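Sample entry (507 residues):
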Amino acid sequence: MLLEDQRFIHEDLERLEQGISDRVLDDPRHIRDRLNRDHQISGFLDRIQQQSKRLLDIYNDTEGLRAKEIQSISTGDPFDEFYKQLNEIKDFHRRYPNEPVENLERAYKRKAPGEGESATAEIDNLFTGEEAYGRFLDLTTLHEDYLNLPGVQSRRITYLQYLNIFDQFTPPHCPIKRPEKSTDQYFSYVGRLADYLEGFLRRTRPLDDLDKIFASFGSDFDRAWQAKEVPGWGEEKQAVGPAAPVTEGTGEGTWCPACAKEFKNDNVYRSHLSGKKHVKAAESRAAQGPISNGSAKSQVRGTSAAKDLKERAIAEREYRIRKLASTMETVRSDTRVNVERKQGMTERERQQELDALFADSVDTSLRPSGADDESDSSGDEKIYNPLKLPLAWDGKPIPYWLYKLHGLGVEFPCEICGNFVYMGRRAFDKHFNEARHIYGLKCLGITNTTLFREITGIEDALKLWDKMTRDKKKEKSGGDNVVQMEDAEGNVMPEKVYYDLQKQGLL
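Predicted structure, serialized as tokens:
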């Protein structure tokens, strides 16, 4: 009964569109409910694509079954065909009496809190407690893996420093050299980091076309790799002079052809001859027989090709990590602030904050939808803030000790920003790289903004800029007007150097 399937799919598509429109009109307050709504809409969109594809296959009618069914209905006695299909339906339900019937009217309808909406439990399983429903990154495990990489073990980098440099793979921020990046440990690390960032984006942005974004990352990397413009993976500088034979080491020690390894100490070389690794390598070498010059060259080419493929895979993952980190710059900065804030809290306060987060999400999910306005007004009235403390992410005043710790009561005015007052040292230091301060400097005619940090007065900034321009002009004019002198041997030197050498009797 293809016509019934066709009608059913059309009804399903309309119900899906209605379910999506009902959820789009809803504006949840809590981030957990927003993610729940977005994931539900994403699931509905996927089902729309599946059902639309199935409907197109029915309309295309490649096997001609739909045309046969229409012909059987339109020709002959219609009651015969009707009772025939009715008997098929009865026979089906007689064979499967407990077959559930899908009610499309209730399938995509938003359920009340008491009707068992189970999608929020799936959202709880998608994120860790540190991620706070996608508000922050959780890179603690990857930070431990990074500290165990070769080249990093001697440097103890804190988690806060790692949040600043996890997408930087070139010196001086990354101490890992290019030969050390070819190890399996580093390859596994960058793979896990890229997979985590990609999965985090999929969990927090279910309605974005992420496949298209990831495909653009791949095409951009292919172009950059062909042009050898990938940072840290350019052409290696070759040593000047004839190349030494690779298979014979440096020539300073004893070479073991079976292990393809050079030993500087003869005692170490003799002791390794009885080892299992050397015996196994010698047996495999003897089984292969003598290697000709052509086969040796082909092995070298094969090794070089395998090395190039591995380097390309590692460079592709590093490039993808940079792109993913740039798209999550806001989440990254929020994570740094959250880590700094938690470092000043005790374990008890952290647990209380985590419990309050889950309790707030449960309260918002169980609250009736009609009581939102009343809860807003009552919640505003209950906030008691006589000290005018700043509000935290949950809408409640921050603790007074945290207010004093960060110095949020200290005012920092900036005349360049139009006498804007920044509360606290953190906001003041951060504003020098923001658009407001940079725009104020450009209005004064100052282009090099990096040298004007900690300068907030217009007069001081103009004086410093005027001094810099004068020094630059003086240096340029001084270099152009240097008087050249020549001694008896034809050596040319500046006038000051000439007279100094003449006074010392060296000319």
